Amino acid sequence: MNKVIIPNGSDAIVAEYGEQVIKEYSGNPFIEALPSILSTEEAIEKMAIYAEYNPKERMLDKHYRIHLVQRLFQCFQPLWIHLDLESRISRVIRQGYLARNAFRAGYAQGLQEGHRSIKGLQGELSNNSVFRTTAAGFTIIGVSGMGKTTAINRILSLYPQVIVHKDYNGINFSMYQLVWLKLDCPFDSSLRGLALEFFRKVDDLLGTEYHKKFGLGRKTINDMLVIMSQIARNTGLGVLVIDEIQHLSKAKSGGDQKMLNFFVTLVNTIGVPVLLVGTPAGLSILQSEFRQARRGSGQGDMIWDRLKNNQNWDLLINALWGYQWTKKQIPLTDDFKNVLYEESQGIIDIAVKLYAMGQIEAIMTGGEEITPETIGQVANKHLQLVKPMIQALKSGNISKIAKFEDISTVDIDFLGFMERERASVDLQMKMEAIKRTQKKKEQEMNTSIKEKAILKLIELDFEPTVVQKVVEEVTGKEANLDINELVVKVIQGISASNKQKKKRKKEETSLENDIRILAIEGRKENKTVYEILCNGGFIKSHESDFGQTG
């Protein structure tokens, strides 16, 4: 794909039109410019993220390894629900484009009617006689911590967000196609804030000024819906994702009915598939009227429940287990799978954090081995805030579970845990550094005393090699001697050594003159004692005493 940068906007790719297997998708530049429809195997391969890992990292110091443990949160293991979601998003984007083919009759007229609506802000979107939506939005409702947002972001990343069209089959076709747009419910919790966020996001991506033109006045939410609809058409918007819908406030948005009307209008008349994502706390927003309005979509709502302790759970834990930074690598057993499930109740975020905190605990305590008991201890120690919710899930009691609108709204303070452990590591490292510094200073001090003692003894005409040897012997036996004590002890050592040498030499000399030794040696050479004594000068000849006669 050829990448370009939109002036004042973001990165984009230049449209490349692919042949379509499905007949109704052919001849539509918006669909033909999309990546190919993925098989199950291709979807798994493209979605999976496995963080970098080197077994040698387990030998690093602890203060490095507690940082490396956080790589666990970079991993993404596709499960069956992710494959289902990828397929749904692939279908809704393409189905939504069927009625918005830029080369079919009525498309240009629809743009003109929308432009007139914006100009005078008159008429209702539903009165558009030319445009008939094929949009098929759906809703995802699931407990926090299951990775809904992460999964949606991962799937959307498989599509280029902005595609630049120049010509299509030799026909001039200059247009920016906005394949997807994801909004998080705004800080002020109102529908107006959501519309303003829409304008801001489009401006950031395409370099437009919709927020400046339409967001600063006193336009009503109905006016903003008209404008949003036209922007969606102008940009060829493929899908609009609205995340964290439970954060919308009924009071700030004008009540239940107004919110329902807003979402119904988005899905049925904006002409773009709308994907709403939230926790069970947002169910009250999506009452029967909204579900009835989308009954014909064919996609069905998705309930993102906790994982069961089955093949999906095994797949997730197997993918994570290879990432161990304790010095002792532990194989995965059923005990580990079961204790992680028991303490997390199938909530992915809690399971990953438990595994990470269990490793950090093992590293910090010096045990360097993660065990099922470690997981249980970490859960009891650090999951106090979510413990009541986990207990409710364990019980299976509907009335107990119902007390918690969002079963894991209270987040696990993993970052706080990390900061506390890092501070502990830092303290340990500082203490070790202080000890190393003290030891180094002691060694330097001892070295300095030894050097001074050696120099002083050399000045006293002692042999340098002898001095150095005796200094090492003395300091090896006795520490903390001052220079004078060391010099005295070295002189005593040298003196004692010299006396030993003289004694040994005298003994050796006396042995050399011992006639008994000479006699023994002579017999070995078959000599008589007399011959040996004569040769040794022990017996004098008569000539030496009397001289020779004349």
Automatic annotation (TrEMBL):
Keyword Transcription regulation: no
Gene3D superfamilies xrefs: P-loop containing nucleotide triphosphate hydrolases
Molecular function GO terms recorded: ATP binding; ATP hydrolysis activity
Pfam families, alphabetized: AAA_22
Keyword entries, A-Z: ATP-binding, Nucleotide-binding
SUPFAM superfamilies: P-loop containing nucleoside triphosphate hydrolases (SSF52540)
Domain ORC1/DEAH AAA+ ATPase: 137-283
Name this polypeptide is given: ATP-binding protein
